[in-house]
Specification:
Order of helices and strands: HEEEHEEEEEEEHE
Strand content: 25-35%
Largest sheet: 7 strands, antiparallel
Structural class: alpha+beta
Number of domains: 1
């Protein structure tokens, strides 16, 4: 009896040491099944978009797609945000001809923030980790941030000179966000976007409004 108890205790000690020695799990890649038959509802993240002094796209192509790989026919993700507020003369592409006087008068800010909740951005995944590129009206804003199976609110600052406005009162102008998924691999990592907002008031206040539920939450 004593011998059996001794063997049991030795086995338990070895198991505990092994468990403590094992490194934390590093995700190697996303499950391809995540991209199949999984389309989220309109509010797929725990974050609501800001509602004051902001232009938002909350539904449509590129949004609420489930987990999209770069091998998907839906890649890259394309999201258009429409501005329907005329503020001054624009060129043929929709960019303000002379934004400086408008900024000085307080009509427009010098910059805006492009805000979006992103899902399952595995920046800490096993090499190569996930690199998802954000393009706004043809300009590279950088990479999305996040982690495995969570939603994280991402924000990028854009000069007002890179924002498109309508040419006249009653018109509209589309500002395009493009997400290039998984730049370092093919079919390895997937991600999703819930909504995209162009914040043109006090960005700190708008982020505070969104952060009512916390900047980072699990799926």
């Amino acid at each position: 009896m004593k011998r059996a108890l001794h063997l049991f205790l030795c086995f338990s000690l070895v198991w505990v040491v092994y468990a403590l020695w094992m490194p934390a799990e590093i995700y190697a890649q996303d499950d391809p099944g995540m991209a199949l038959g999984k389309t989220f509802a309109t509010r797929s993240s725990p974050f609501d978009p800001p509602s004051k002094d902001v232009f938002v796209t909350d539904d449509g192509p590129g949004l609420d797609t489930g987990c999209t790989f770069n091998t998907s026919p839906a890649h890259p993700l394309i999201i258009d945000i429409v501005i329907d507020q005329f503020v001054g003369a624009v060129d043929g592409s929709g960019f303000l001809v002379n934004p400086a006087p408008l900024i000085a008068k307080g009509i427009i800010p010098a910059s805006i923030e492009v805000i979006m909740p992103a899902f399952d951005i595995d920046v800490n995944g096993s090499p190569p980790p996930e690199h998802d590129e954000v393009i706004f009206n043809g300009q590279n804003l950088g990479l999305l941030n996040g982690d495995n199976n969570i939603w994280l609110l991402n924000s990028f600052t854009v000069p007002i000179s890179q924002v498109k406005f309508p040419a006249a009162t009653g018109g509209t102008a589309s500002n395009r966000v493009q997400i290039n998924v998984d730049l370092l691999a093919s079919g390895r990592w997937c991600m999703a976007i819930d909504w995209v907002a162009l914040v043109h008031s006090d960005p700190a206040q708008d982020r505070a409004d969104v952060d009512r539920h916390g900047r980072q939450q699990g799926a």
